[in-house]
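Hi everyone, sorry if this is the wrong subforum. Our group has a chain we'd like a structural model of before ordering constructs, and none of us has done structure prediction before. Sequence below.
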Amino acid sequence: MDSNNLNKLFWEVIEEELMDNTDEELLLSMLEKERQPRSSSRQKRRSVIDRNREEWHIRLFNDYFSENPVYTDAQFRRRFRMHRHLFLRIVEAFGNHDEYFQTRVDATGKMGLSPLQKCTYALCMLAYGFSADVVDEYVRIGESTAIECLERFVRGVNEVFGAKYLRMPNNNDVEHLLQMGESRGFPGMLGSIDCMQWEWKNCPIAWKGQFYRGDHGKPTIMLEAVASQDLWIWHAFFGIAGSNNDINVLNQFNVFNDTLEGRAATVQYTINGTPYNMGYYLAYGIYPEWATFVKTISMPWGEKRKLFAQHQESAIKDVERTIGVLQSQFAIIRGPARA
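Answer:
Right subforum, don't worry. Here is the predicted structure as tokens:
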């Protein structure tokens, strides 16, 4: 006998045994309830909050973006970490690049969130390290939508502005970098190189052994960057496991690919009458003895070596200063990564 017939026979026996001693309507209701499929988990009812998005968009616009805003340019610069014209330029560029940052009508016929609301919320999370629903009562964006805004904002910055601002230097850029280096006593210097550790709070359990950093006691992600005196990070390499060090990351770093393949910008300078055609970077002592790295003298003796070590250790702080400025302006970098 197959399972279906056996199950049918089982319910017939139950009905015959209990029919005499049980109220018929009550018994039928009990049997019907037992025969209905049971869900593994109770479905959650989604609560819908009417946030009155249109009214709060008008309030946000009047506060910061109208012809006579409530708050001054200085207050906008301090709160948004950039000037108003730059923020509006980003909003316009995102609207042309991704329809997500365009005002649309939802399924109920109501106007959706405006680009100003979405970009403002994303910048609040970047600048202050807020959780996703901290300023919901002002910008009127729910938690899940806020996280999506942040992800699309960061992705949009990379896609729209990355090719212009995060790129290898061209001939004009190299000339500018060489002028800055020569004015500080380092002709031929293209910048300083270093890496930083960023704590990863939500690192997956399966990856913690790979990303665990002993001296930090927590999983970390490494960022290797080259920066100049004017705070330009013109090359960055991000995402390597924190268990590595500067040398391991350097083996995967692609900053020298253009030099090896002959596509690097032309560098011409002279030191003590000797011409050179390859730029170099200021680095710490852990880096290997390559011609592209100029490191300090660990135990200088003599006035000449002491002066060189002093200037080298001062100029190499450019990359640390750049990362420090980023952390002071955008608290999301200063705190643990929650993504």
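For your construct planning: The first strand starts at residue 189 and ends at 199. The CA atoms of residues 101 and 115 lie 5 Å apart.
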